[in-house]
Design goal:
Low-confidence stretches: 1-21, 467-483
Radius of gyration: 22 Å
Number of strands: 2
Strand content: under 5%
Distance between the termini: 17 Å
Strand order of the largest sheet: 1-2
Largest sheet: 2 strands, antiparallel
Number of helices: 21
């Protein structure tokens, strides 16, 4: 059986190839198109606005937990923005065999928050140094494993990818709901009618702008909605200008600000487990994004993406940042706006680097109240779930046990969302995986797909060939489904 050809780096949509004639230059894939500077900047800023809260939240949680002062915690937040920008540039622009070269945003992973608190609790600068040492080792290990880990892509047919993409979107929705209530469950106004009304108003504004605007303005409807929502929130009294007044004009994340990294075996093992979880989620995210932008992620793409993830994580502690991984919320932004250029996200990476170097600029982004961000997040994260459902529509759920695979994987993946304390009696080390519905759902989908569609078949049958044939669209002019 002939080997399946690799997806070429500069490949274009099938329709574009069919539309070109001999002698004419092959048009660039939309992923590789560079937009005009103003559109590049505003679209990149929209990505930054969508991810900002997710980047600064982990250091905001970890800093006080390990005993850092407010000033040191603010320093961690700026460093996280800076390193997120570097990791995003590695992903989008890339070099050698590093980088997925997709509109793929990287930032601080939430998966590491609980283990990092356990490692550094009440240890101050020493705790941060131990955390950074463990992240460096975990990042280097992940970099070495990337060429082998990427081969798991063959275990991600549409029945698996559709389930995982749906779980990504659904798992992110509680984040949007939390933001809509105010973000801080201990605050007096958490879940107040003002906060929820503000989120609802922002949601309506975003939907109205998407309906009424056309062209480029429609593509930046999320950004415009955040601006309008923030302006409305000022008289409502939920916009905090305190950070703007306290921020420094310029600040560089001095390498090893908290001292040289320290290496402890228990901490290293814990963060290596987190790294494997992040690599699993990043693989699923790349497959999701590849479907959305029309450039399916093959083994080489995933290998490059994982190398960028892990290298970014290994370098991040040098500048006082934490472990980096994919930001699924930005996949929803790509799906909604239809802006597929990786250079737009690269522009967002540059903005993140500048925000890390200019704290006062970062504080301007921070002016967006969480309820406003939550209202927009409902649309963003819902778009990811909708993309997963669209992928499941191509998975031939009426054949074999595919529907059962989806049902079981979704059920297990939704446990951390529907019952957050379900695994409370399990060891803490296992909670790194079990508390991630994306990871557990992904594992269940892969194992069940192997059990029902691969293992136990007669030796003369080729399940992969059958899957490819059965999952092709009936319309001969339609694009083939990627595996």
């Amino acid at each position: 059986m002939a080997a399946t050809p690799r997806f070429r780096k500069n490949a274009v949509d099938a329709n574009a190839v069919q539309g070109s004639t001999a002698g004419e230059p092959v048009p660039k894939h939309p992923v590789d198109e560079a937009l005009p500077p103003f559109r590049m900047f505003t679209s990149g800023l929209q990505h930054v606005a969508a991810m900002y809260a997710g980047v600064v939240a982990p250091p905001m949680i970890v800093g006080p937990a390990v005993g850092l002062s407010a000033k040191d915690t603010a320093f961690l937040m700026g460093a996280s923005l800076f390193t997120a920008g570097i990791a995003t540039l590695l992903q989008t622009l890339g070099f050698w065999r590093i980088g997925a070269r997709l509109p793929f945003v990287n930032g601080v992973s939430f998966a590491g928050v609980t283990p990092m608190i356990a490692i550094g609790k009440d240890r101050g600068h020493d705790g941060i140094a131990v955390i950074f040492g463990a992240i460096i080792v975990a990042g280097l290990l992940g970099f070495v494993l990337a060429p082998y880990f990427c081969k798991l892509v063959r275990f991600f047919p549409p029945v698996v990818t559709g389930t995982v993409i749906t779980l990504i979107g659904v798992s992110l929705l509680p984040v949007a709901f939390n933001w809509s209530q105010g973000g801080n469950a201990t605050a007096d106004d958490y879940g107040s009618t003002t906060n929820i009304t503000m989120a609802a108003v922002t949601l309506v504004i975003v939907l109205a702008l998407r309906k009424l605007l056309r062209g480029f303005l429609q593509q930046i409807a999320i950004l415009l909605g955040l601006v309008v929502g923030t302006l409305i929130a000022i008289p409502a009294g939920i916009t905090d200008f305190g950070a703007l007044g306290d921020a420094d004009l310029v600040g560089f994340p001095t390498p090893f600000h908290f001292g040289a990294p320290q290496f402890e075996i228990a901490a290293i093992i814990s963060m290596c487990i987190v790294m494997l979880v992040c690599m699993t989620e990043s693989t699923a995210d790349m497959l999701a994004l590849g479907k959305i932008v029309g450039r399916p992620a093959d083994e080489r793409t995933i290998e490059g993406g994982l190398r960028a993830d892990t290298l970014g994580s290994a370098v991040s502690p040098l500048f006082n940042g934490f472990m980096c991984s994919a930001f699924a919320q930005n996949i929803g932004l790509v799906a909604m706006t239809k802006v597929r250029s990786r250079f737009v996200v690269a522009a967002g990476g540059v903005i993140l680097v500048l925000l890390g170097l200019v704290p006062v600029a970062a504080s301007v982004i921070a002016l967006v109240p969480l309820p406003v961000l939550g209202g927009a997040g409902i649309v963003l994260f819902g778009s990811v779930a909708a993309s997963g459902i669209q992928t499941l529509a191509t998975a031939a759920l009426e054949k074999g046990e595919n529907a059962l695979i989806v049902a079981a994987a979704l059920g297990v993946g939704l446990v951390p969302i529907a019952a957050p304390d379900f695994y409370h009696a399990f060891p803490e080390d296992l909670l790194v995986v079990l508390d991630s519905g994306i990871s557990t759902g992904c594992v269940v989908a892969i194992v069940l797909n192997l059990a029902f569609n691969h293992w136990g078949r007669p030796s003369g049958q080729d399940p992969e060939a059958e899957a490819v044939e059965s999952e092709q669209p009936k319309d001969p002019m339609a694009l083939p489904v990627a595996h």
